[in-house]
Amino acid sequence: MKSYAFLFWGYLVVWLGLAAYFITLMRRVSRVAKRLDDLESRQNAGDGKSTT
Amino acid sequence: MTRRHDAVISILLAATVVAMPVALYRIFLVAPEELVMGAVQKIFYFHVPLAAVTFLSVFVLLAGAVGYLWTRRAVWDHLSIASAEVGLLFCTLVLITGPIWAKPAWGVWWTWEAKLTTTLILWLLLAGILLSRAYATTPEQGARVASVLGVVAALDVPIVYKAVDWWRGQHPIVFGPGKGNPLAPGMGSALMVSLIVFVLLYMLLLASRMRLAGLEDRLAAVEDNVWRSR
Fold it and tell me: pTM (2 decimals)?
């Protein structure tokens, strides 16, 4: 019962799980935001051409 | 709106980073070691807040689901998606940390007793919500099915909470008037600080996931616009 090994694995699993999810989420946010910026700037450039 | 959202995420991240060492300090250096289980009991300071935050996420999911079914506004659906995904993560961690404690305490990793089984059902319902969105023919259909499943998941929460009272079982009773043993001085405050950290973490992940859902909706609209203009 006095083993710290269980505790170590428990804490490791929790923090690794939470950190992995947060990093994945931030990557997904930046990938979608970048794609959105690209498309919007391309669209704006296209609108600019058509009006001139 | 986006800037304000980013500011909220930054503030929550900073608050979590500051609060986390305080929680670890209270858990490992202030809270006394439990007499029977010793160090293994300290998993309780993670397992219980994770379970509480799972319940919180299902109630937020319920608010999002009812809001969407009532108004059909995208913001409610974003809240529902975000809380279901983050809730599934927290429920997964509950189901992992539980057996890590159960093995030294009960001698088995898992037993089909009421509390554990109803928690596993909650996990399956949350996973079902995400799958129903992923495999729906249209986003609207996915949102509708997920909202209905969200209401069903919320109905499971009181059953999980009351499972030990209704069907007994091995799971310890920790909270409630006249239930369990009162926590020793230092244990209660460590649990409270840990709970605050996990609520902050939940809010951080929820805000980030809602931001992603909003961006995905905007991206779909712009892509649709580009496709139509060709």
Answer: 0.88
